[in-house]
Request: fold
Amino acid sequence: MNKILVIAQHNSRELSPATYRAAACAQAIGGEITVAVFAEAAGPIAAAAARLDGVSRVITIERPENAHQLAALLAPQIAALAPDYTHVLMTSTTCGKDVLPRAAALAGAAMVSDVMQVLGPREFRRPIYAGNVIVSVRVPGTGPVFASPRAASWRPVGNGGEAAIEPATLELCLPTHTEYLRLEQEENDRPDLQSASRVISGGRGVGSTENFKLIYSLADKLGAAVGASRAAVDAGFAPSDLQVGQTGKIIAPELYIAVGISGAIQHLTGIKDAGTIVAINKDPEAPIFEVADIGLVGDLFKILPELEQEIENPS
Amino acid sequence: MKILVAIKRVVDYNVRVQIKRDGSGVATDGLKMSINPFDEIALEEALRIREAGTDTQVLVVSIGSQSAQQQLRTALAMGADRALLLSTEDESQIQPPLLAHALLKLIEQESPELVLMGKQAIDDDANQTGQMLAALWGRPQATFASKIELAAGLATVTREVDEGLELIRVELPALITTDLRLNTPRFVKMPDIMKAKRKPLEIRPLVELDLEPTPHLETFAYEPPPKRQGGHKVDSVAALVATLKAKGVIE
Reply:
């Protein structure tokens, strides 16, 4: 039987949604699922992990070095646990991407990044070329399989479970060459582009930084994050951290509204997994309309104020 | 100090790739190839560190087919001091564990204080090589860097993480992978291209490194992603809002 180890992700206080998604991927593989919580104090995180559907056991590894999720410190601990398992999973967040390859290398294993689908215990589908090609890969051999589930592909499991929680100790000397300093978070009320359920992006058609205020204004009405096409970023209308696309952020919101964006391939690859795509563009031939669920041809400077109005007071 | 920058030759980010007719792989023949954009940022950063006044040598390395000489020449034209190609014609071999083991051998020979590379290559999108190399090397890693400050044998790195910006401090030697916001790579000028022709570009067969077999993945199918069914248009803002409400996307 498969023995699957899921590495919990958290912010020292709460179990992150990424862990719920990794548990879903573990269920698709099938087998006995253990969640490992590395923390300084695992209490509430371990309690939440124990309620994950399908999880039979939670182990907690509490030590001061685990206060921050540093790859150099977590990886040797994960690699030390790995031989007892057939699979080691950690969702492909920036933390998972940082930690899991380092653990795989220490365990002498290859790794499957961004698992979209489980074909068999050692066979998976994953995207390459920013999702323009989907490959099926096999992990040869018999050692533990290291894999990172791709967040957008897995629905979080529920929390009706009742797993046992067991403290564990690892006799390992951890390196001291890496020091955590601090986390700086943006101080605004707008949701984060990467995880927002609604995103409104502006393209070159918006025309200027000043005009981008129209995008921000509509975003605030809808509680949406703001994005931009590469063309808009290159033209200086928006900062590069708003860039959506192959070389920017790849996102999967429930609603994506593309304003004045023609739909270059490098942009489309960044929004392929969005729930509903709305395109507003004056050029009826713009490629964005080929992928948009709802298109509206017209002048964005007329449409956006009207749209705000319509959302507030439907006619 | 010595900085080793690893670059990969990839299909240019502006080109849409197709799957070969027989489904055996991705058709790359005849496509425009470039330095992986994230690696180009890594190289730019190395050059800026050198230009900031420290006595620095920038060695750029690629592992791949003979054609990767072209990208190494571009790197030399950007300003790298030396280039090295570890050549192999079997491109299915070029996977993160192998790259990490090969680069580790080079590190042992070259003793760099800093190793820079992009956070991921835009072809296989694995996002693994840097982390694997740092693990094998037994040195710190700072992935997704958007700012790097070097002082007194330490690197303070700002990392772009999902939650915001994380700052960590690592002891050198260390490995840093670069993200988009770190810098904007320079354009190569004609005289630099001419000058680069005289800079050393060494080619060594990868097999000469005498690597043990490394773990790898076998790819057995290539498919296009499911197509989106778009194309529906509405003729007014009212109809747009009504459709969104009917779909339950907005209240």
